[in-house]
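[recover] target loaded
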């Protein structure tokens, strides 16, 4: 037993140092950050452009008195609603030829005028392409009605502020559960591929045969798996720190404004790392076993596709916990070992009890030990095979 642990530690330390201390690992850490950064930049630009183009602009060809009353009504509505959702009014002094003025305003592109409101406050007339935009016409009707009969005494409402509401808190926690589950699934799929590439490289260079001559095959399997797990945890910590800094810089109020999970942020982050380790060991053992049977990248892609597709189905099964953590389907997802880490992380965001997580971690450790045992046996049968290979269902006992 001591030889097994010592050999596993040597392999894990070797692979961890070779992975984390390499230049390629730095680019690997930066890899997911570039799409997020570009997506945020272009998403912000697109949202700003969409807001500017979707916000209707109406040119008002009225006298100053009528436009002033309409503008006051518009400001009152903007205080009640978001300013970006209220129609924008542009004042234009009346000219002699009203038809020519309307045509010139509708052809204007700075700002792009959707309609022209002419006439007067008592007899308004709207000209423009508003057939497919009933919201603009409805807002103008409301503004004109309020401008004709403004509220002299607005009612006073006594407001009592509370920290949160049960309904909104439930929705926020469900959103946190969904995001946490998606990140756990994404990181597991992304990082478990490191096992395949490293194993294929060592098999093609015959390095793995030299290592297998010095240490037990089981130690080689477990050492590689835990080395990549440690390297993955380093990557996750870097990405979480970068994400928190980005939120702190971009979002007003920073990380404190994010919806808190039911167990609290410290416990949720610790459980996230633990459940990632369990999910990674379960899926990583499967990928490492696949890599032992393949010798080319094409074979790896062919053999890993069913596993990845099955993981997507398991992710959908674990998603049933969101919104109804105590339903029979959700309880089945928390018990099934392959979906239990993702389902329990989603439960941590919605339920404050901690004892189910202790029981789930023990349950997952048992299944991890069982899958590691089965995977190491299959790994031992296939890793040193040379020459024509037989399919896995025809493998004989070693």
């Amino acid at each position: 037993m001591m030889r097994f642990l010592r050999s596993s530690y040597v392999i894990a330390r070797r692979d961890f140092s070779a992975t984390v201390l390499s230049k390629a690992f730095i680019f690997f850490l930066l890899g997911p950050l570039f799409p997020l950064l570009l997506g945020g930049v272009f998403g912000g630009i697109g949202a700003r452009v969409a807001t500017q183009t979707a916000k209707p602009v109406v040119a008002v060809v009225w006298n100053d008195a009528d436009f002033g009353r309409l503008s006051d009504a518009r400001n009152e509505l903007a205080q009640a609603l978001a300013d970006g959702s209220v129609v924008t009014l542009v004042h234009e002094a009346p000219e002699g030829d009203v038809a020519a003025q309307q045509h010139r305003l509708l052809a204007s592109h700075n700002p792009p005028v959707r309609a022209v409101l002419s006439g007067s406050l008592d007899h308004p007339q709207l000209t423009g392409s508003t057939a497919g935009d009933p919201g603009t016409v409805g807002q103008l009707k409301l503004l004109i009605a309020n401008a004709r009969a403004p509220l002299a005494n607005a009612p006073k409402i006594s407001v009592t502020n509370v920290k949160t509401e049960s309904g909104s808190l439930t929705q926020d926690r469900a959103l946190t559960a969904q995001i946490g589950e998606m990140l756990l699934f994404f990181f597991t799929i992304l990082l478990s591929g490191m096992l395949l590439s490293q194993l294929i490289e060592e098999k093609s260079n015959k390095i793995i045969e030299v290592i297998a001559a010095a240490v037990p095959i089981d130690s080689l399997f477990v050492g590689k798996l835990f080395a990549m797990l440690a390297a993955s945890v380093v990557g996750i910590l870097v990405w979480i720190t970068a994400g928190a800094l980005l939120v702190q810089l971009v979002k007003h109020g920073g990380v404190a404004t994010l919806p808190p999970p039911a167990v609290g942020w410290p416990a949720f982050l610790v459980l996230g790392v633990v459940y990632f380790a369990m999910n990674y060991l379960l899926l990583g053992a499967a990928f490492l076993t696949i890599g032992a049977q393949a010798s080319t990248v094409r074979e790896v892609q062919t053999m890993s596709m069913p596993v990845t597709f099955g993981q997507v189905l398991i992710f959908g099964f674990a998603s049933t916990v969101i919104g109804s953590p105590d339903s029979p389907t959700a309880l089945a997802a928390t018990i099934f070992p392959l979906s239990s880490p993702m389902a329990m992380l989603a439960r941590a965001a919605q339920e404050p009890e901690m004892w189910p997580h202790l029981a789930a971690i023990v349950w997952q450790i048992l299944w991890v030990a069982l899958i590691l045992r089965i995977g190491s046996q299959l790994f031992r049968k296939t890793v040193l095979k040379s020459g024509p290979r037989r399919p896995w269902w025809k493998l004989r006992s070693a």
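[recover] notes: Residues 69 and 265 are 50 Å apart (CA to CA).
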